Amino acid sequence: MSTNLAKKGDWVQVQMNILSPEERAQYLPEDTKKVPLQMRVKGFLVDEIASLGATVRIKTTTDRILSGILIDINPKYTHNFGEPIPELMKVGIELREFLAGDEK
Length: 104
Known about the structure:
Blueprint: E1 5-7, E2 11-19, H1 30-33, E3 37-45, E4 49-51, E5 55-59, E6 65-73, H2 86-89, H3 91-99
């Protein structure tokens, strides 16, 4: 499988526009007002398969389902903690399920 393709359950990052330039506050600097306010979020791919640039759905570690443009597959943490460890990615989710009595 190409590194440009993600499959269901892969750790990915999406980007979405929150405010268009017209919706942004008027007191912002001119160069800031000209671009949309964007958000980037990491989560697990909900769709079966997707390529970079596609609109996809993700499930965050806080159980939110969000939709956005796929911009990265297995994204690194830029604060230098290194590569995500697949075995640890779902620990919080599994612990919450266990504590709620939903263990599988």
